[in-house]
Specification:
single chain; 152 residues; Non-ribosomal Peptide Synthetase Peptidyl Carrier Protein, Chain A; two-stranded antiparallel ribbon; 2 strands
Length: 152
């Protein structure tokens, strides 16, 4: 293999390793695995508890089908199951993220912002302003000490 291809491959592998082992990617992978496992629990809960309750309230079959022509059905029960599964999953993920965010905020101390350093040009302008004000006060004092001249 030519030397430049080896360098490219080595750089590519290094970049991929840096990407794959970052905390965010690993957290995402763990979240996907846990979400997939949790989906089975939510599906079972929906099919075994929620669907029978919906069937009893609506007086419909548990399967939730509407017969059309021939062997064609509108399977609204499966759609309702998917919607309920989604809502339950979204609620659980929302609550988990609230807990994680709360735990993350407990570990962080709020840092006090460091006082901003005054730029050199602003400091120089401030000094000039103060000197001019001081000079103006001296002139006003000198003028007030002059005797009044009434030539009239």
């Amino acid at each position: 293999m030519p030397e430049n291809k080896k360098g490219f491959l080595k750089k590519f592998v290094s970049e991929f390793k840096d990407f794959a082992l970052k905390g965010n990617v690993m957290d995402l992978a763990v979240g996907v695995i846990i979400g997939a496992a949790f989906q089975g629990i939510v599906t079972s809960f929906t099919e075994n508890f929620i669907n029978p309750i919906i069937g009893c309230i609506g007086g419909a079959e548990v399967e939730g089908k509407i017969h059309l022509l021939g062997n064609q059905y509108i399977n609204y029960g499966a759609f309702l199951t998917a919607v309920i599964n989604f809502i339950i999953m979204a609620l659980v993920i929302f609550l988990m993220m609230k807990v994680v965010n709360k735990l993350m905020s407990l570990g962080k101390k709020e840092e006090e912002p460091a006082p901003a350093e005054v730029p050199a040009d602003v400091a120089l302008l401030t000094e000039i302003r103060d000197l001019l004000a001081q000079q103006n006060n001296s002139v006003q004092e000198a003028v007030s000490e002059l005797p009044e001249n009434n030539d009239e």
